[in-house]
Amino acid sequence: ALLQEDTVTAFKATIGAIGSPASYIYIFEFVKSERKR
User: Fold this and answer.
1) Is 15 within 8 Å of 22 (Cβ atoms)?
2) How far apart are CA 32 and CA 25, in angstroms?
3) What is the pTM assigned to this prediction?
């Protein structure tokens, strides 16, 4: 659970830093790849 919270924090930081749709695409692709495991 802690690792997941850190991941969410990293996602929020990425969105805040980039502030563009590209960040959402990156997250979508990351989640998609994680679910394949």
Assistant:
1) no
2) 11
3) 0.36
For residue range 7-33, what is the model confidence (pLDDT) as tens digits?
888 877 777 766 667 767 777 888 888
Q: Which domain holds residue 15?
A: 2-35
Q: List Cα–Cα distances, 7 to 24, 34, 35, in angstroms.
A: 14, 12, 14
Residue 27's contacts (CB-CB under 8 Å, 6 or more residues apart) are 11, 14, 15
Count how many domains the chain has.
Answer: 1
CB 14 within 8 A of CB 6: no
Which residue type does 5 have?
E
